[in-house]
Structures are given as C-alpha cells and as structure tokens.
Amino acid sequence: MTGFRPLIQAAVLAALAGTAAADPTEDMVQPITRFVGEMAIPMPNGSIDIGDIDNTLRFEPLQNFEDMFLRDDVVFLMRHGPTDWDKLDVPNVGPTDCDDQRILSEQGRKDMRDFGALLAFNDIKPAKIVVSQWCRNQQTLDMIKQGYEQAKPGVFDTIAIETDPATNLLLSLQGAPNVTNLRNRVSNWDAIGADGPLMIISHFTNIQELTEFSVYEGEMLVLDPDRENRVLGYVRLKTAGPDVGHFNIGDQESIYDEQGNIRPQYRQERNFVTGESN
C-alpha cells in the first residue's frame, strides 16, 4: 500500500497545521474538517470514467491516518452493504437462503462497487477477507470485487478469501452464538508475511457486541489488535447513513436533506483516541 501515502500524509500534515492541503493532493485526499478526511478518484483521466463513481471515501480521524492505512497488522471490521428494508428476513431463515432474507438493494450494490473501486484507486488492499455466509455479505464481497476489477484489474485475485460461519449474524439460525471467535480473529491477526490488513465482513449486531459501535451499512471500522482491539477510526462512503432497522429514524428518505446530505440530527458523533496508549 504505497501509491497514495506521500500525498495523503502531506494532506494530513496540512490539515493539522490548520492550512489548506497542497494542490497535488486535492484529487486524492481533502480534509473536510480538522478530523475528517475524504478520498476520491485520484486520476480523473485514468482507466475508468469518473462519472461512473459519484461517491467518495470518508475517514476519521485524520490524526490516526498512519495507524489506519499504513499498517498491515490492523483489522478492517465491516458491516455488509446497504440493503432493501422492504424485504425483511423470514424467521429462522438459513444464511444461504437468499429468497427469504434481506439482500442488497440496487443502490447498495452500486455503493459497494464504488467502495471497492475507491479502495483500489487509493491503494487500500487487504491481504485477506473473511466473510459471513449470509447472502447480503456475500453480495457485498462480490460488489467490492467488481469495484476492484473495474479500477485495477487483477489486484483482487491476490486477496485470500474465506467464508466463516463464526462471522454469521449473531444468534440467528446457524449464526454465531457469541463474538468469542470474532474477537479471537481480530486479536490474533499479526500480519506476519501478509501484504495488507485483515478485512472481516460481518453484521451490525456482531460488530456492536464486539466494539460497542453502531455502524452504518457498508461502514468499516479499523481495529488495532495490539491495543486490545481498540477502534482507531472508521472508513465509509460519503453517502453512508443510518438505516431504519437499527437507528431511530422514521424512514430511509427522511435522513437526507435536499442536497443529499445527512441531516444533523442523524449524524453520529464519535470520539476516537489518537496517538499511543499510555
């Protein structure tokens, strides 16, 4: 993961100094606030029409950039992509019974394809991806793969893939009984000989139980096994927002204003610990 590092580091230093980022970094990383950074497609005239990707990656906090993106021994713990909440899971549905469970919406499929392309363009590549058996998680993996292939053909083929029932929806039929195995997965990742972090694509309840963070669909937390699985920050699409199933909102449309931004009352305020632990 080397392509974007010198440029984004310059943006981070500029943000922390309270000055504007240098022009060469603006297409890649733009400080949105003192704490939030944004990554877009770095080369508008590259191998993909930038019009195909109308989203950006946002991450927080800028202060933890090096730990979040320049280390192979961290873990990306991700929730599956945006789903169609008009179709709920049938009680006791099996994890591979796609006809009777909530699956990715059309927008969710596009979002996760964009997410994969943005990760690839910014040289963010896991060494291994562990994914739940559930259809929405497998679809998320497929769309991320399509995004990588769209942006940088062949790169995704170097990533090891494993489907693990221990990451299945907590307490569901054939689901994980607890997060012990998930916690061990995170804690035991040391990245020796690996070229990138570990990515785990799981579910809201599993992630909340492990981290006490309520995550949006398609959101990825960055965990540090060396600091007792501390959450270093998050990465998600600019358009990511709360869903009707796990957040106190009336309907999915009501969370956005006329410009497509999340209304202030639905934004999550999170406090991340920066720097080395004492």
Folded structure, characterized:
InterPro entries: His_Pase_superF_clade-1, His_PPase_superfam. Pfam families: His_Phos_1. This is Phosphohistidine phosphatase SixA. The structure is a single chain. The chain is of the alpha/beta class and 278 residues long. The chain has one domain (5-266): 3-Layer(aba) Sandwich (Rossmann fold), CATH 3.40.50. It has six helices and nine strands. Strand 5, helix 4 and strand 6 form a beta-alpha-beta unit. Helix 3 packs across helix 4 (135-151). The longest helix is centred in the middle third of the chain and has 17 residues, at 135-151. It is globular.
> How many distinct folded domains?
1
CATH first level: which class? Alpha Beta
* CATH topology-level fold name: Rossmann fold
Distance between the termini: 28 Å
- Outline the biggest β-sheet: 9 strands, mixed
As residue ranges, the low-confidence spans are 2-8, 10-27
CATH superfamily placement: Phosphoglycerate mutase-like
For the biggest β-sheet, the strand order reads: 1-2-3-9-8-4-7-5-6
What's the count of strands? 9
Helical fraction = 10-25%
